[in-house]
Design goal:
Blueprint lengths: L3 H7 L29 E4 L15 E9 L32 E7 L15 H11 E4 L24 E10 L4 E5 L6 E2 L18 H66 L4 H12 L1
Antiparallel strand pairs: 1-4, 2-3, 2-5, 5-6, 5-7
Keywords: Membrane, Signal, Transmembrane, Transmembrane helix
Protein name: (raccoon dog) hypothetical protein
InterPro entries: Uroplakin-3 (IPR024831), Uroplakin-3a (IPR024825)
């Protein structure tokens, strides 16, 4: 059996019958940040319904959820024949039109509760917390899954007040055996407005300031790199054009002298007379 101080810390050990008690928020020792935007962690009704006398037979505990509205503050969770309601979160619009059954678990006798001395054991921490706590709104996919067939413990609405009730059901008869009172209103957290987020650098850590500075300077460096690439591309294009023009000019200058030289050679060969020595021989023959 768990130590007495542990049960008192969890609020699980109560005096009197279950009908005079209310569900309570889980101790901050075991559930930090509770409630959240969409969940509420509650203590399970341990040693509550069977504190006065041992219960024989098979029993289950149903957890009902109801939005805190004046019109449904004392809503019933059973019909005229004492059968528990089976309303779902979809049928009640998330608890706004009436209570819905969010969870069901077996009644664990006080003597079978796991010892809290092993809560520091990582391998058993989840098992122990599941034995002592129940988290309302823990299933984030059941509403969108058309093939889901179990109890839909759907996420709660943010900034909304809810009330909770435990019901003890005799599984042999299917009737309500006992039940707690509705809990006091428990409000889920409100989302933090964007304007309320503190963005002042003086309240940031050194690492956040460095990361913010790097991210802020990155677009500038990318822009400089892009401009440099464009300038280099233009310079390469201009250099290529200049080399092309220089090469063409050299080809033209080399081609023109050769053409002029050929013309002069042809012109000279056409107008040039016989060689001088041959002309002198011809004159001497005429004189003879």
């Amino acid at each position: 059996m768990p130590p007495l101080w542990a049960l008192l810390a969890l609020g699980g050990l109560r005096l009197g019958v279950g009908v005079n008690l209310q569900p309570q928020l889980a101790s901050v020792t075991f559930a930090t940040n509770n409630p959240t935007l969409t969940t509420v962690a509650l203590e399970k009704p341990l040693c509550m319904f069977d504190s006065a006398a041992t219960l024989n037979g098979t029993y289950e505990i149903y957890l009902y959820v109801l939005v805190n509205l004046a019109s449904s503050r004392n809503a019933s969770v059973q019909d005229g024949a004492r059968a528990p309601l089976s309303s779902t979160v979809q049928q009640t619009e998330g608890g706004r039109t009436g209570p819905y059954k969010a969870a069901a678990f077996g009644l664990i006798p006080c003597s079978d509760l796991p010892s809290l001395d092993a809560v520091g054991d990582v391998a058993r921490a989840s098992e122990i917390l599941n034995a002592y706590l129940v988290r309302v709104g823990a299933n984030g996919t059941c509403q969108s899954d058309p093939n889901f067939g179990g109890l839909c413990n759907a996420p709660l609405s943010a900034a909304t007040e809810y009330r909770f009730k435990y019901v003890l059901v005799n599984m042999s008869t299917g009737l309500v055996q006992d039940q707690t009172l509705w809990s006091d209103p428990i409000r889920t957290n409100r989302p933090t407005p964007y304007v309320a987020i503190d963005t002042w650098p003086g309240r940031r850590s050194g690492g956040m300031i460095v990361i913010t500075s790097i991210l802020g300077s990155l677009p500038f460096f990318l822009l400089v790199a892009f401009a440099g690439a464009v300038v280099l591309s233009l310079l390469d294009t201009g250099s290529s054009d200049q080399e092309t023009r220089t090469h063409d000019s050299q080809i033209t200058q080399e081609a023109v002298p050769r053409s002029l030289g050929t013309s002069e050679a042809v012109y000279t060969s056409v107008n040039r007379g016989p060689p001088l020595d041959r002309a002198e021989v011809y004159t001497s023959k005429l004189q003879d």
